Amino acid sequence: MQHQELLAGFIRLHILHHAAVGDLYGQWMIEELARHGYRVSPGTLYPMLHAMERKGYLESRIERTGRSQRRLYTATPYGLEGLAAAQGKIRELFREVVSGRSDG
């Protein structure tokens, strides 16, 4: 993915947003990100999910269906707090980037 370092923060926030709405799993998240123009491989996404879980933003559980299993992720209270903090910053940044002005 071009500009991966710059866009990684947006991807993390996108993950956190969906994890706050409900359970998500890796392949679904890859497809959801692709709908928004992000091309993220499993080799990029899964370490990101694991790191977000280690840092306390996400929690996961294994769901079994027959012989298959899937790891589902959801936002923790700490993750919801982080998302709320980020939403204010996103609004501020959006206004500044779209207007082309710097208020600071």
Automatic annotation (TrEMBL):
Domain Transcription regulator PadR N-terminal: 15-83
Keyword Ribonucleoprotein listed: no
Keyword DNA-binding in record: yes
Pfam families hit by this protein: PadR (PF03551)
Annotated keywords: DNA-binding
Molecular function GO terms recorded: DNA binding
UniProt protein name: DNA-binding PadR family transcriptional regulator
Annotated source species: Mesorhizobium shonense
Lineage, broadest ranks: Bacteria, Pseudomonadati, Pseudomonadota, Alphaproteobacteria, Hyphomicrobiales
